[in-house]
Amino acid sequence: MSLTDRQQQTYDFLRGYIARHGNAPKLREIADHLGIQSRGTVHRYLGALADAGLIEIEPDRARGIRLTDSDVKRFTLPLVGRIAAGQPIEAIPDQDEIDLSEFFIRPNRFVLKVAGDSMIDDGILDGDMVVVEQASTARDGEIVVALIDNEEATLKHLRRNSDGSVTLVPANRNLSPMRYAASRVQIQGIVVGQFRAYR
Fold it and tell me: Taking the CB of residue 15, how many other CB atoms lie within 10 A of it?
C-alpha cells in the first residue's frame, strides 16, 4: 500500500519522535508538526498507517502508537574474531554477528557530526559522528553536549567546581578549558558512542 505525501510525513514524524523520546507523540503534537488543526485528520492518517501495517494503535492508552515489528530493521555485520592493537595476532573467524541497530540505537539517542579539533586527544576527529544520549545532567569527566548561553553548543568534558561553576574541558593540549557560571551551561546529552568511515 503506497502512502500519500501527508501520510508519509506523519509516519516520518512518528519514527523520528519515537527514536528521540522512546514513546509516541500526542495527537496534538502530530497536528502541530503537520500544521493542521483537525485531530480527526490526524486520526485518518494514523488509520491509513495502521492499515498499511506500519503502526499499531492502542486506543485506550495515552500515546498508544507503536511501530510494528515488521518495520524494525536490523543492520548486522559479521563478527569474525579479535585482533590485537599491539602485536599482531590471527583473527579467528566465528559465526557471531554484531547488530548495529542494537549497539547504537536506544530511546532518546541521536547523532551529531563533529566539527573542529577540540576533542582530538580523545580520538574524536573533525567529521566523526558521535552518538549522544539525551540527558540534562552528567557526571564529572563525561563527554557532554553543552549549550552555552542558549546559543552555542559544544562537545567537551564536564567538570564541576567547588564554587558551583562549571568548566568545559577540551581534549586538545593546545586549547584551554573554559569556566562558566552553572546558569550559563545547559547539558543536552552525553556521548555514548562514535563512528567514522575511512572509505
Answer: 14
Q: Are 156 and 172 in contact (CB under 8 A)?
A: no
Check if 156 is active-site. Answer: yes
What is the end-to-end Cα distance of the chain in Å, rounded? Answer: 37
Contact between 130 and 114 under an 8 Å Cβ cutoff? The reply is yes
pLDDT level of residue 19 (50, 70, 90 thresholds): confident
**What are the grid coordinates assigned to 65, written together?**
502508537
Which is the catalytic residue, given 73, 101, 118, 162?
Answer: 118
Domains and CATH numbers, the chain: 5-71 (1.10.10.10), 73-105 (no CATH), 109-195 (2.10.109.10)
Task: Tell me if residue 67 falls in helix, strand or coil.
Answer: strand
| Residue of 26, 156, 162, 176 marked active site | 156
Written as nine digits, the cell of 94 is 566465528
- Mean pLDDT is lowest, of 36-50, 51-65, 112-126, for 51-65
Alpha-carbon distance 71 to 28, whole Å?
24
The rounded distance, in Å, linking the Cα atoms of 31 and 60 is 20
pTM: 0.59
44 secondary structure, DSSP code: H
Rg (CA), the chain: 22
Question: Among this protein's residues, is 118 annotated catalytic?
Answer: yes
